[in-house]
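ASSEMBLY PREDICTION REQUEST
Request ID: AP-0331
Submitted by: J.K., bench scientist
Number of chains: three
Total residues: 909
Priority: normal
Notes: Please return the full assembly, not individual chains.
Input sequences:
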Amino acid sequence: MKAAARRRLAIAGLTAPAYIWLAVAVFLPLSAMLYFSFLSATPVGGREAHFTFDNYVDFFTKSIYWFNARRSLELGVHVTLLCLLIAYPAALMLAKHVRGRWREALFLLVILPFWSNALVRTFSWTMVLRGDGPVFGPINPLLPAGMQLDILFTYPAIVVGLVHAYLPYAILTIYISLQAVDDALIEAARSLGASRLQAFRRVTLPLSIPGVLAAVFLIFVPVIGSFMEPRILGGKDAIMLGPIIENQFIAAFNWPLGSALSFIMLAIVLIVMAAASPVLRRHLGATA
Amino acid sequence: MEPTATCWIVRAYLGLVLIFLYLPIAVMMLMAFNSSALYELPFVFDTIWFEKLASNQRLLTASLNSVVIAAINAVVATALGTLAALAFARYSFRGRRLLQMLLFPPITIPWLIIGTSMLVFFFWTGIGRGLHAILLGHVALSLPYVIVVVGARLASFGPELEEAAATLGAKPGQAFFRVTVPILAPGIVAASLFAFAVSFDQFVISYFLAPPGVSTLPVEIYTSIRKGFTPEINAISSIIILVSMGLLLLVVRNYRFGGER
Amino acid sequence: MIRKPISRRTALAGIASTAALAATAPRPARAAGSITVLNWQGYGTDEAWALEAFAADTGIEVVHDYFNSEQEMLTKLRTAPGTYDVVLVNNIYVMTAADEGLIQPIDPGAISNFQDLSPPLRDSDRFVRGGQYYAISWVWGVTSFAYNTERIATRPDSIEALWAPEHAGKVGWRDDALESVQLGAIATGQDMNDPGDMELIKQKLMALKPQIATFWSSEDEWNKYMAAGDYDIAVYWSGSAARSKKAMGLPVEFVVPKEGAIGWFDGLCIASGAPNPEGAAQFIDYMVDPAFYVPWDNQIGAPASANIEANLALPEDAMNRTILGDPAVAERLQWMAPVSDERLQTNQELWDEVKTSFVQ
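STATUS: Completed
Returned structure:
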């Protein structure tokens, strides 16, 4: 077989299993939803439905939708940035400054929260964040009156809950990227006269970009559609695009609108990621 | 080896991060031993929730289902996803961009929408509800995570090592198993951990696609919110954490995941 | 005080021994086997002791599936024909379900308690069409509010208590568009099923901004927030208030204010294509029977029964007799009517706008 044909076969063979699976389980079902999003009503139970763009137009004309879309995007940015800021130094330290047994143990400890159920964890946060709970309860009497700690049912509480949930993702992906950076490269840079900071900026950082980008993808994207942490921790500040979309399926019987909003959200995310990716690359000088 | 100042900064920082990560988990485990059903303080030690858990067949069966499904899911998703990630990293071809973009919908679109669309679509096509349907859904949702994580690992390693092996006379199969796989290994392990976690915690899809009478742990937790979210849930969550810790310890001990290069 | 009245071990032992006994005993000739019930979780039909008694009596094993919203219940019926036998359907959805062919008529002759059911509920045109009974009326209740008697000294008698400044930041509300609009209508003196002035309702609901501590979406959350002191006064359902007081031991009282409250009633239906319709009818009959209802309300707490005899069999001080049994209270109720898709959508948008105003 010719090399080109063998190459094509290799590519197809590698990608087909995963993508056929995705097609059956996700893409085909979602295309039904895509079709619905252009209908005027859910075509079930004998309802009359005609083709319309209204569901998409509604996003731009009704302020509740784009206002909350913006709110969700802001939430995504806040959570992702905080996660990266906290995770990067932690991953760096784990990869470069901790050796042997300790590294294993710490790594384990960082990953373990994955296995606690998200719902239970979030409810546990309600206990931690309330002013009279087991954590702030004992502390508050010691603080001056104006500085009481009680952030439950506020936006910051949502951010805390989400950062906590996604931090292990960030640490993990950045860590495995950093771990791939050969110490020899850094030593080479140092021996050529680079300071430690320079070696970091010019060698380590760019090579870790894939891990950072992976983290951004795994955090920013789901956070935008999140509904559980906002609902439980946010009190009446909980409204975000995620819950609004879900209400179209749970409370109103408006699958077309819910689907349209979902696909708009998808489009926004794709645009944001497409724009952010080259920016990150250029500013952090990656050659990878 | 390292200057003392760095040592202390490292310890302090990592310590703080760990405290942050474990604060709610500590509270959760604490409440598993509190006698109040409504998480009321003051704290009164009681093992009643563990006793109730022992006789709670429903919760125990659901937990077992979750573990089994998550394990199968991890294996399948990691296998399929790693292959795809290899294709993306080592070949550039028309349509690669598109395929990468197609990884977004499963993660972006709220699971409720995906779950509903799966339910409807599986109904139309006769796939129906059941453990097979749940697995179908879980693997699909785990794939983007696997592909991205393994891909990140691959991107940090260029193809140079494999090319070097080729010039030294290794056949593609040899190069793959002797060079690529060991390099990939941490990424694969990480990806399967992700896949396991995604499946283990996934309730929306499981909820929609489970036939009556079959349940998984997250579904039990979620639906028991209606009935009474008793601290039995805390009890089983605590047990799971401890068991996972034990398992992970085995994995990390025997396989030098964080090992020296 | 907080522990559940029946320990699981006892129930499990009871079920195990009953099952062993039942396995050896000759089964009743008809309607043996099993049935699948679709309902809210923890809403009566899945009480372990009841299922055990029912199995002992009829030999029928009951399996449950649950839903978390009425839309979900309809979706499940639509996508799983031939799976369910008994379905709980709120009265406003019964005719919708019947029109779509999701439920089948029930023969009143199969229900021994039929004559004891309260006629306005039993024969309501929400359940009956062309002489066919598509649902057997089961329970009814009121959506209003309850307050913490230890923190609020005098019993409020007006719905304005939810807007009162002295309760700012301590009010509990349910995140539900339909219910919110209905309560807003009652508070502004309008017909909740056909309010003339939606803008007024929106303003009224927006005025809740300083009042609400957080939203609850399940009985359990309500209990936790009330117990923790986040709520002093909160919107709630009558049956749930009975449960919170009795089974959870919380110091709460339910109030039907002078402006009125939301009345609702639920029916039990048999799904089309049910695998075991005879068994389903037997189960429904048991559910409206005083033998089930009285222990249910006494030990755990329940909405009011559609069965007049069952209600009368309750103790004198039971909430379902004192509050819901009071004719003056029934006068003040507005009964929920079916809601069109358009209205559902309008309500949802209005409520989303109100919630958005809370963060602006």
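REVIEWER COMMENTS: The two ends of chain C are 43 Å apart (CA to CA).
SIGN-OFF: pending second reviewer
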